[in-house]
Write a structure and sequence with these properties.
Blueprint lengths: L1 H5 L1 H11 L2 H5 L20 H12 L1 H12 L3 H8 L10 H14 L2 E3 L5 E5 L6 H4 L6 H7 L3 H13 L2 E3 L6 E5 L5 E5 L3 E3 L3 E8 L15 E4 L5 E6 L5 E4 L3 H11 L10 E5 L18 H17 L2 E5 L12 H19 L4 E3 L11 H8 L4 E5 L6 E3 L4 E7 L2 H6 L23
Parallel strand pairs: 2-7, 2-16, 3-7, 7-11, 11-12, 13-14, 14-16
Antiparallel strand pairs: 1-6, 4-5, 8-9, 9-10, 15-16
Helix pairs in contact: 5-6, 5-7, 6-7, 10-11, 13-14
The chain binds zinc ion (ZN).
Zinc ion binds next to loops.
């Protein structure tokens, strides 16, 4: 018994599983309670006890540190290893882990080229419904990507050494001599050999017009609190699963944590005129308005916990360059009131139709006064990033039917289109 008592932690651990809770919490047993079990422990050698302590205190920490390191959280992994008890500090597995995470952390290199930014719309789940010959078919064929294509694109990007980063890694804040804060171009630090990439998804609103065309209906939380899609097939059967970019990419990163730099996933660009994330939070007549707002808040919170960020895509998906200053002001305020109030503030503005404004201009000042600092247009052919004192521009490349069918060579650095293109696509008209 003597040896057991010295190893008080193991003793308590064993005892806890045998004694009623009251005995451990110090409460006197009430009359009628079963008497505390008599704990009879076998004798252990010092080595066996040490092995038990290692199993209990070292192995889980090593496992946690390894999981952190897989996603490039090296500082956190090293911090985790400091919780290993002193007596195991020379354990070969511990010293090896410490050395390898330190080396990996110090092996990041600046990426010197402009960073690519790719974007998608909601994915086509049922190609028979999307490409059914109706008036929407050609639009989907141009601007959308199918679920199978998106999965193949992820495999291609991963094989080609791309790694998702946070758009905010493109610049850093610097305090100038007069004390004002200015933005300066930053070369994102990435593991050697990796190519940083920003990803976004436009119009994550699940518009009414898509309902009968083979797309998911919304983003929702499943019973475990994970973000999934509701999908309703042609016969009206409902299923909850991975039917759009968010849960498909979440699953891919779960399987390949080294595809995401410190958990970065992507930007979800929202409009507001049909609510957000598939919920009609814009509609005063919606009988479940308050509940839907609550749902959007909850889904958004979980998305942010899992590496996603939000961007403003205009309230009414208007032509930002063509509308008046006052219209833009009203549109942006309304987005912040109706959408930003649910998903949180953002400093990223993703232009509807990819139509950029002048730099500088009154409209730029207006958007900056609303908190926006990152402005994203569309330019498929090559990466473009420009960091000025007070804002950042980055253009984006659409990996959709239009790009893949008409200029596959423009994205050959990203993917091999012949391995991706869905054979069920009709000809572009
Ligand atoms: Zn859009």
């Amino acid at each position: 018994m003597n040896k057991i008592i010295r190893n008080s932690r193991t003793f308590l651990f064993l005892a806890a599983s045998l004694l009623p809770a009251a005995a451990l919490s110090g409460c006197a047993p009430k009359a009628g309670d079963a008497p505390a079990a008599v704990v009879v422990q076998p004798e252990y050698t010092e080595e066996e006890l040490a092995a038990m302590r290692r199993e209990e205190t070292v192995v889980p920490v090593l496992e946690e540190a390894a999981a952190l390191a897989e996603g490039y959280y090296y500082d956190e992994a090293l911090e985790c290893l400091t919780h290993i008890p002193e007596e195991f500090s020379e354990d070969p597995e511990v010293t090896q882990a410490t050395a390898s995470y330190t080396e990996a952390r110090n092996a990041f290199v600046p990426y010197e080229q402009p960073v690519r930014h790719i974007f998608f719309h909601s994915l086509i789940v049922d190609t028979d419904l999307a490409f059914d010959g109706d008036y929407m078919e050609n639009g989907y064929n141009y601007w959308m990507t199918t679920v199978d294509e998106f999965k193949a694109i992820l495999e291609e990007l991963y094989a080609n050494q791309y790694i998702l980063i946070d758009i905010h890694d493109l610049c850093e804040e610097q305090t100038s001599e007069d004390g004002s804060v200015v933005l300066a171009s930053a070369q994102p630090m990435v593991p050697e050999g990796k190519i940083p990439l920003v990803l976004s998804v436009d119009d994550v609103n699940y518009y009414d017009y898509m309902k009968t065309d083979g797309f998911a209906r919304n983003l929702m939380l499943d019973e475990e609190g994970n973000v999934k899609n509701l999908y309703i097939d042609e016969e009206g059967n409902e299923s909850i699963g991975d039917y759009d970019v968010v849960p498909i990419l979440d699953a891919f990163v779960e399987e390949h944590p080294d595809f995401s730099l410190r958990g970065a996933k992507g930007l979800l660009a929202l409009t507001g005129y049909e609510g957000a994330l598939g919920y009609r939070t814009n509609d005063g007549e919606n009988p479940s308005l308050e509940q839907d707002k609550e749902t959007v808040r909850a889904v958004a919170a979980r998305l942010k916990e899992t590496g996603w960020q939000f961007a403003c895509h205009g309230y009414g998906h208007k032509h930002t360059a063509q509308i008046s200053y006052d219209t833009l002001a009203a549109d942006t305020s309304r987005w912040r009131e109706e959408v930003g109030s649910l998903v949180g503030d953002t400093d990223v503005y993703i232009y509807p139709y990819g139509e950029e404004i002048e730099y500088p201009s009154d409209k730029l000042s207006l958007l900056q006064s609303q908190g926006f600092r990152y402005f994203c247009g569309v330019w498929s052919t090559q990466a473009f990033v420009s960091v000025k004192d007070t804002y950042v521009r980055q253009t984006r490349c659409n990996l959709d039917g239009f790009t893949m069918k008409t200029r596959p060579e423009a994205v050959a650095d990203l993917i091999d289109v012949s391995k991706v293109l869905d054979p069920s696509r009709p000809e572009l008209k």
